[in-house]
Structure formats: structure tokens, C-alpha cells
Amino acid sequence: METAALVAPVTALEFLHDTFLLTGEGPILTVYSLKPHPKASASLSLLQHYRIHGVKPRSHAIDPAGTNRLGSTTEAKFYDLAVFGGKAVRLVRLHVNLQDGDHLRFEISSPLMELQDWALDVCWLSGDKHSPLCVALAHNSALLLDVNTGTPLAQRSCLEGCLLYSSLLLVHESWANAVLVGGTVFNQLVIWKPGGGENYSECKALVERRLRGHSGVIFNISYLQENGWLASASDDRSVRVWGVGALGGPGGPCGDLNPTCLRVLYGHQARVFSVRLSSGKVFSAGEDGACLVWDCAGGGKVIRTMKGHRAGGVRALAVSEGKGDEERWVATGGADGGVRLWRIKEREERNDKLDEAVTEKLTDLKFPEHSMPKVVCVVGEEGGNPSWSQSNVVVCTDQGMVYQYSNGQWVTVWKGTPDFQSYCVMETVSISVKDSTSKMNVCAVGNLSGSVQVFSLSHPESGILLKGGSGKVHSLIWQEGEEGMCLLASAAEGLVYRWCIEVNQNENNSLAFSVNPLPPFVLPPCAKRWLLAAVCLQSRSHEVLWVCGDRRGSLLLFQEAGKVVQKRGDDAQADKGILTGTKSEEELHQEKLQPLSCLFGVHGKQGVTSVFEYQGLLYSTGRDGCVRVFRVQPTRPEKLEQSRKNDCEKTLENKEQLELEVLRVQRACKGMEWLERVLILEPETSEQEVRDECETLSETQHSFKGGDVQADNKGREARFVIAGFYAVHFVVWDPVRQERLLTVPCGGGHRSWCLWPSHKRVWSGYGALVFIKHRAVLASQPPGKEQSWEGGTEGTGGWSLREGVHGKGIGCVCRLGRIEGSSSVLQTTVNMTEKKEVQRDQGFWEVVVTGGEDTCLTVMAVHPKTGNIKVLSVITDHISSVRTVAALTHTEGESVNLSKCLSALLFSAGGRAQMQCYRLLIGWDRQRLVPSCQVIQVASHRLDEQWEWRRNRHKTVKMDPETRLFSVSEVKRQFALLWESFHHQRCVLSVATCSLEDGKGNRYKLLFSAATDGKIAVWNLTGDSTSSDSSSSAPTPPSPCLEVPAHQSGINSLAVWVEKHGQADSSCLVTVASGGDDGQLKVSLIRVQYPDDGKTGGGRGFSQIAEPNFCPPTPGSDQLQLHLNTHSHIPLAHAAPLTAIKLLSPGLVVSTSSDQRVCLWKVCSAGISHRKTLCSHVADAAGLSVWEGQMIDMKEVDVKEHRTDNQTGVETEDKTTEREVDVCLCEETDDKAEAGESVETMSETGDQICKTSDENGGETTDKTESGHAVKTEGSVNTQTGEKDCCERRRKSERTGWVLVCGQGLQLLRVRIHI
């Protein structure tokens, strides 16, 4: 086995001169190049089964000649690094090519040095020419280690021999000057000298200083030499800064005699794991997922909060060495496996401190005090796509006056008549002038009497007055229609008046409005009957459709009147001239349009806030905290007849028989209930990576690729972010990464606001919010200041160097299939000199779904060749932890661009008896060059309110039926209960199914269920699974066909497969592998006798307890008969309860446990034999998924002692654990296909043992009951036997994949030779 991909908590971070960032994830050390932009450059697995907890570089980089020749640019320099974690230390050298900074390479400098105690910190002794290492150990001792031989030179313990949770070594030049600061289990800091005294190796050292004050254990320590500050992070949620003076300098001083506590910093909501000191600043990170920047030199306040990780907290923190007012890098590593990077400016931090975070960077635009602002909008300068510095703010007041903020001043644009006072609504838009390339900013203002004034902001005198009924104008909406810009005015009695408005320029350069009235919409009767959102779109037959959202929370579909036949036979046509007075008001009322389809109250009772169309799909938001992705499609046949009966009173005929269909519901974060709009997220490669990879492409090549991408992604769900209100903040939320991209303290949602840029509906990584608060107009960014992508990321989640997955434990995993990327389009847009870049993005991706304790389902794609992981979608519908997932997948074939598509029916279940069903459509996104995922919600089910009410009323504990059988209908979108049973009377922990087929073609289905009593029940589902009639009020509960006592306690996992036999025998053997809490692996062989007459029904009522011996079937029986044939077990397969068992290939089983071991077992009729074990890097392993890969020709494959991936720079070595546990399976000539694999093992040095012969040179075999010859593990063979075995394994091999999930995930590659 070898690791192909790993996501684990990031436990170590270290900067190298603001140029490189080192990260430790499990045993893998990765280096990121920070210039010109952050990206991964190389990685190497170092510590075998230990986690990396720290990286300490030498103080200077030295060139190979041994001198610092700064003038030479051809020589490569290197960094010597000491990597430690667990009970291991290793030295590695990072080579940097000065000509090409992107070319980085790791070289191992020493063997793995394993210690007798845990290493908490290491430090180089720079004064010694041999440069030994000083190592701080967990039991309050220090060790001097020879890096060349790995032997200890000296070791000394402290007199207070307690356990340390953290340690810090401060060494000047020699061992005698070393000072150790330890955080004890007794919540104290102790300072002592490991190298002091003459006979330091014989006696224990005394404690020189002791710091008390924490009420919890101390997790991390940091020291700032220039100020003499010592900072400690504790379990008590606090950070303490101590004034200790000089530590570890020349002579080994231990600081002041009476050290004092300078600051006690409380701001974290959970334990604080890491702390770093800089000049006047303290950086801390903890379990709450926040990195706080404290102004320690000032008042000890938090001046900045940086959040970017999912649940689980921040496990590692690093701050670069900035000088003076230079910028600093801040990196955080989370329990979700993600790495975040921020850029912090010292000057900006000081400004934040002076402002004391009262306004939190808000800018007051100084609106005049004589009037009260009511509505605010943002418009750009006329004539193009404006930037924020060129945008203007427009405000309408309670006096009916419109002001414009430009160049730092407020200017009165328009003053309304008295009927526009006390109440008004306003909307602005940019309209292209007819027969011209220029654009005009147009404003519309409505009042209580139904009047709407439309005018240009630059020429307000050329306005026009429209009439929208006689009542209140509730809202105004500008929307691009078929013939131009349309204005919608929602008035009284549910009428939505519409006008198509054009701007013309006369011969004397004056402006004139051309208005074309359109038939109004009629909203369904309800209490809150006005419109809030609308979008115009084209259907497949080129009929104009409108999708609207009202205040009642309903989504409505309208069809344009000018394209359809009027049912009333009215020949009146809409007036095509300019509207004057109320000339066409009566005519418009007669032509009012009724909705074709209505999703009544789909967004609750608080209303729909926005409707948006992008690439064929519709997105709506509401105050129910949900984003709904839906589409317009033909009406289903079962609804067509009912629709015709109900639509007899409609004014227009629904010629296309269209309706609205909701595909999925996406919730924002918890507490974010007021959603305002959806913003499409631009590809991550849109800024820097595109400039690097495509800088030589021409404009025509870009446009050609963009057109193909838009056509290819038509109808697929786009990556989007959600804008809305979270308490008193305006937030832009990323639902996939579960992070905030923008946060503005505005006071809440009950106010007028405008987000820039709003005309694109695209989130580019930055934005500005303008809003009204306390009679003032405020902006999150000063007007006139240019924004950029880089500037936007600094204030949000920073740069994502590595994407996180689940912050908490992953409990289940399911593989959907393989998706292949496209190369044809890239070849047409990239010239021949850039073929290397094209090949980098090719290959296949494995698509998997994981569920965990964070109540989320994550759809992700794993690239086995490079180890890259991309999160495709995050589903947040579960209200409790997700316990299990399963899927039915099929490949829909290949498209024109050679990329396969997957369609999967996904089922998930978890706490509160909740089940969810989704349809997942996996395709290839040619814009981001990763797979894309479309999620369609099919059905959901959980315990209803009636069951909860009955249980609480009777005050008795009612046991939930632990075994239920459901059928799912994608048409009806519901779960239907077929039957339920109380047979186990225990908690059911696992289920499995298998399908059987006899010689006559009859099919049977069996269900295996295992409970906490250690018994396995077998159910015959042949008759039940084919019946979909759930109308019966009380279905008859079945009885199990067989019950097998397998374990002493709960059974956590089952693996079932069928061994086929000859057609002459009317029976088959079913193998059941089970693992439980007792640590036992058991394999039961069950013989299934088919009915003589071939009937597939029945199966209920026949039940028996398992017997160890086979009983002959009853002649003439018409039911399946099951008998336990044989069973075998491994008493202590794992050192902890088995959590998952899967079948990799016939006769080859993979198991995992919370002991972090992944075991491979050979299962045959002779019993169970252990083949190999890998120590996984995933803690608390709970989920397992296995599958077989493609056949690979091995004729040209050579075994090398050192392997390097040239594309990614990921290196592994033969002598590490990953190479030691490599498993090869060879086909046996005398075995059948069902159990025809044997396992080659590896020696402790990593060499393959291909020898399976006995002392006489013959093969050692065991005869089984069925006459098969099974090879056993033998000793050493002759050179001839080894050569023959190696030649055989070079012919062909099949790759197996094992995905382990727990506190992270790890993908393992298993080589199966056949």
C-alpha cells in the first residue's frame, strides 16, 4: 500500500524568510512558494507513522560550496531543516534554484531517529561545527543528539519530573547556554537549564523560575527576545504575556528574578492552541477557529479577527519575520486539513488601534442633516463598466428629494412634488442610449398614489411620469426584457404594472424617453400581495417568460402576452406609442396576465428577496435562510390533467405546459436567516493563475474558449456565494467552504442598502456596502478608493493554500465513480509550446461523498496522481450528524469532449431518524478544469411530529422500529414505508444486501442486519422489494430466514459477497464478514438452497437458528433455505473495535479500526489469513470505501529505490512505512476466480519477498474442503524462484484503492498482480 492522497489536521507551520512556507500534515512535509503568488511546490513523506509537530530551520542558508556568495546567481542554495513529531526526529534539506525560485526539491539528510520519549521542541546548536540538535522531551528533560549517527551525546532531566504539554528551547551557541521553558500538567511554566553545572549528566537540574497564573494546561509557548516577553496559550481560553527578561543568551541567563504577568488576554471562545509574538503584537489561534491579533503594547485589545477554517479549530500558527513597517505573512492550519494565508500591514494595524474599532472601517458620507435618507443606491459613471472609485451614491429622502454623492459632495438631483413626501421607493439602472454606445443612469421613484417618476440623473428635467394604479407603489424593479429595459411597479390589489423604457437622443442632444406599456401581472390572492423580485428569460420555443417572487414567499411563472393567443378573443393590442396620462390604463387591466405556475409560500411567510438566472438555472433567496435552485420544465403527465381543470379561468393559454421545479435547497450558516441575493463565484484561477498559465494566449483564443465553456456548462449549477444578514452584520457567505468572505457591521437587515458591484451578480473577491443607519449614509469602503482582488482577500478569509474538508470527524464515505477530464478544447486554445500545461490538468478524478459530525455531506473529487482534492458541493440538510451514506451510480457515457458523466442516486441517514435522497449529476467543468456537481433533492424522511407527541404524552419509552424497509419514488419525491420490524429489540448498527440468481434466471434479494447483541439476521426481500404498494395501513412484518450469533457485543460493519458454483447444484454460498466491538473479525459461510420450482416469492415465515453443520434441504420446498455451513474468526484482528469492513476483490477483505491500522485479509474456504497492515495517518477511523481500478501493463515498470513524481514534486522513499507496506497480489494457477489471489509481502527493509517455496524447492500449499490449493506464506526461495515470481508480476496488475475516513481522510493504492 502507498498513500495517494491525504487530508489530515495541519499540525506544523514555519516561514522561511517571507519566501517559503513549510507545512506539516501527518508525516508529509510540504513547501509553498509565496512569490509571485502562493502555490505548492514540493512535498515529501518523512516521519513514517508519526505526525509532524514542528519544523526548525537553521539560521542561515548556505550554498553548496560552503560560503555565502551573494553575487552568484547560478549556484543553488539550500535550507537545513529539523523535522520532529511524536518520538521521531529527521533532518531534511530544501534545495532552491536561485535562477528559478519555483524549482524546489527536498533531500533527506539523515535516517529516522526514534527517541524514547515524545519530542516537544528542537533547536540547532549553531556554535558547534558538527551542529548537534538539542531536543526537549515530554517528561521535562533535554537531549543532545548527534545528527550524523543519531546517538544521544548528553541527556539531563529536571528535578521536577512532571509531564509537559509544551516546551520551548532557547539556545545561544552551546549546550551550556541552553534554557528550557516547559508548560507543565500542573498549569505552570518552569524555566531551567539542562546544560548548567559541571556534573550535569549525573544530577538533575533545579527549577530556576516558576510562573503561576493559568488555570489550565499550557499548549504553546512563544518568546520575543527584543522585548523580553514570554507568551503562553492555555486550556483556560486565555493568553498570558509575561515579562521575563533575557533568556538563553550568552551565559545562559534565566531572566529576571521576579518575572511578572504583563497581560491576560481573554477573547477566544474555546481552548487556545497556538501563540506567536511580534513587535508589539500577539497572535493567537484556538479551537474556536479564529486567529486573533492583539495590541499588546496598547490596551491589550483585539485589533483583528481572521477566520477561514471549518469546525475543529486552528491547530498550527506561523507569523513571518517582518521588519519595521513591512508587511507580514500570517498562516493558519486547521483541523479540517486546510491552510490559510493572510497578509497584514503594520501601518493598518496601528490605524485600527487608533480608531479603537468603533466604526470598524466604516466611512460616514456626511449626508445633510436637514432631511432623513430613506433609500440608497449605487450607480456608476455613464459610459462604461465603472469601478468603485468611479461609482456614485444616490439617496432618496423622506421629503421626496434625490441626492447624488460625487467627488465628496452631496448634490440635489431631483425634487419631487408634495405627493412624493413621507413615502417613496427608488431604484436606479444604467440604460444604453438608442443608436449610441453611451449609457445613461436612470432613476425611478414611486409614491403612495401610484405615480412613478422616471428621469435621468444627468438630465432630471427630461423625466416622465407613469401611473401604476391609484394605490401605494410597494416596490420598483428594473429588469432587462426581450425588447429592452423594463420597469415593474408592484401596486395595490396585487397588480404589477410594466413598461418597456428606451432612452432616445434628439437632434439637439436632448434626451427623451420612449415608453411602451405591457400587460400587468396579477399576483395570487394573499395578505402580503406585492412583488419583490423578477427575472426575464427565454423558453425553448422562444416564448418570453417571467419568473417572479412575492412578499408571501411564492415563486411565480408568467408568460408574455404578446406571443400567445388570447382566450377571450380580444383583438385589442398594446399601445406601441408613448404613454400619456392614463390613456391605456383600462386596456392594461383587461390584458392582465395570470401565473402559469406557482410555488406558493416556498420561501416561507417572510418573502422572496431575489430571483436570478444563470446558465439555464434559476436561483432564489428568501428570509427563510434558504437558496433554492430551480428550473422551468414541461408539466409532468400526472399533473397535466389536474392543471387543465384548474387553469380554465386563466386569461392566457399555457401552450408549452410549463411549471417550476425546485432542484435543491441550500441553507446558509446557522443563524443566517435573512438572505438577500446569490452571487456567482468566479473561478479561482481567474486572477493570478490565469496570468501565469495563459499569458501568451491571444484574445481570439480566449473568446473561443469562453464560448465553448459557456455552452458546455449550460444547465449546470454554478459555484455561488450568498449575501445576507447575520444578526447585525451584512455577510457574504461561501456555502462550500463554510466561511465568510465579507463582513460589514451595518446593524441588521431592516434598512436600505446596496452592494457594489451589483450589476454583474458576480463575486470577484471584494465588494463595498453602502447603507443607511441612524440617519447617516455609511460605506464599508471610502468612495474614490480603488479596490483590487488582492486587497479584498486581506479582509476576508485570506488565501486558501489548501482546501479544508470536514472540521470534525468523518463517519461515513461512499464512492460514486470516476470522471475524466477533457483535453480537446484545451488543445485548440493552447499553442504547441504549452502542451506541458495541458497535460497537467488531464487524468481521472475519483468522486466520493463523505458525511460527518458537522451535519454536512461533502461531495469531493480526488485526483490520485497528484493528491489534489476539490470540494464540489456541500449539502447541509441534515439536522444532526450523518452516520451512513450509500449510492446507486451509473455512467451516462462520454460526451463530445470525451468527459464522462456520472449520475448517482445518493442516500444519507443520520441522527433524529433522518434520511435524505439526492440525485447527483457529475460532469466536467471546462472552465475550472475540475469535475462539477449538480445536486437535485429527491425525498426526505424523519420521525414525524405525531410520533414525538405520542411518546411524550404517555411518558413511556417507546422503542423505535429498528428495521425498516422503504421504497423511494423520484416522480413522487417521497419515501414509502413497506414494512417495519422489532425483531432485534436492540440498536441495529449495520446492514448489507446481496443479490442471488439461480440457474433458471430467477433473482433473489437478501438483507443482512446486525445489532448490538452480536447477532446477524438474514431477511428475504424477494417479494417485498418488488412491491411498491404502500397503501396497506398495517403491513405484515416479516421474520428473518436465519439468525447467526457472530460476536459477543455490537457488530459495526458487514461485508457480504456470493461465491458462485456450478449450475448442477441448486445452491450457492454466501460469505459474510463481520467486525464488532470485541475486536474480532469473523467470516461466516452460509449455504443458500434455491426453491425447486424456481418461484421467487415467499421467504417469510421460514426461520431457524444457525447450526454449525449443514442440513440438507427439504425436497419440494418453494422457499429459500439458508444454513450456516462453516465459520472462522480472528479473535484479536485489531487492538480496538472494528469500525469498517469492505470487500476489495474476491477473497480479499480490508478492515480498519480506531487503532489507526488498515489490515488486508485473505479469506477462503480454509479460513482467514492476515496479509499486511498499514498504520494509517487518520485518527479515529470510522468510514471505509474500496474499489478496483483499471488493468495496467507492467512490462515497462521498474522497481526503484527512490521514486519522484515529476509533476507535483511529491517524493516518497523505499525505506519509509509507505513502501514497507506495499502489497502485491498474484494470481494462483490452481485457484478459482472467486478466491484466486495470494498476497506477496514486503520485508522490513522494504524489499519484496517473492519466495513461496519450502526447503525442498517445491511450493507449499494447503488443501481446502473444495479441493482448492491455497498458497501460504513461505520462507526464502532460490534466486530462480524469485526471478520467476518477479517476471510474472511484471505482466499485468490491477490497482485497488482504499479510502479511510475519520479525523481526515487518506487514499491508499493497493497493487493487485494477476
Automatic annotation (TrEMBL):
In terms of one coarse class, where is the protein primarily found? cytoplasm
Query: Which superkingdom is the protein from?
Result: Eukaryota
Q: Where are the WD repeats?
A: 211-242, 265-295
Q: Which Pfam families match?
A: WD40 (PF00400)
InterPro entries (alphabetical): tRNA_Anticodon_Mtase-Reg (IPR051973), WD40_rpt (IPR001680)
Tell me the keywords, alphabetical order: Cytoplasm, Repeat, tRNA processing, WD repeat
Q: Where in the cell is it found?
A: Cytoplasm
Q: Where is this region: Disordered?
A: 1235-1283
Compositional bias (Basic and acidic residues) at which positions? Answer: 1260-1271
**GO BP field:** tRNA methylation
- Function text: Together with methyltransferase FTSJ1, methylates the 2'-O-ribose of nucleotides at position 34 of the tRNA anticodon loop of substrate tRNAs. Required for the correct positioning of the substrate tRNA for methylation. Required to suppress amino acid starvation-induced autophagy. Enhances the STK11/LKB1-induced cell growth suppression activity.
- Subunit structure, briefly? Interacts with FTSJ1; the interaction is direct, and required for 2'-O-methylation of position 34 in substrate tRNAs. Interacts with IRS4. Interacts with STK11/LKB1.
Q: What is this protein called?
A: tRNA (34-2'-O)-methyltransferase regulator WDR6
